[in-house]
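Supplementary Note 3. Input sequence used for the single-chain structure prediction.
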Amino acid sequence: MALDLKTKQAIQRFLNQYPEIFDDYEKEYLLNYRIGSRDEDIPDLVREVYDELGLLKDKDNIFIGFQELIGEHFDLKNSNIVEVAGGIIPRLGKRISSIQERGKITVYDPRISPYEKNTSHLKLVRKRFHEDTRINGSDLIIGLMPCQATYPLLWSAFKTQTPFMVALCEGGPHGEPYDFYEDADEWVHGVLCYADNQAKKNGMGPLVVLEEVFKDDYHDPWPVIYCKKR
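The predicted structure, written as discrete structure tokens, is reproduced below.
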């Protein structure tokens, strides 16, 4: 079924207003993708734009769900947070920054929109997050399906003994942004083993694995993991 006219017009106005964000393929994808059943996993590209435009219902919004989950275990208002792979439109970072009081969130992603600006609680770094990226002084590091950046995120967190929470996905540590690991279960298993071993080795933990926490609400069957200091 085609995208309804009102939604398509809203997306077209957004693309006209910010023409440098997406390439031609992404623009065409956005103008033709229609969110249907809730049994459908909404692509990152779509949910970023839909959330930015207020087109995504709260019950379908994984940005809200992940923010609430983080807030159950960590202090979002007063923590200095690093977000890895925050997206072209850093919706999670923007949402968290809007509730912060004494904290600040720094978002890393090389494709962050050039139209997005820093605020008193939001710092945007248009670079890829690497293992040697300095996060000293941060209270928490987070990632919402960071795919290729998952291992650098975990490596940095354990090296600096920084608490973290990561929502995993089926992606892998290599390839282009739209590539996926050949075997999703193998990828997730490898991440869990690595994180558990490093938590024990670095005196953190225990590693907490929340299985299928977003499966029913957002059709995301992959686990969320987090670790605190002892």
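The chain has two domains: 5-59, 60-227. Residues 60-227 form a domain with the Rossmann fold fold (CATH 3.40.50.150).
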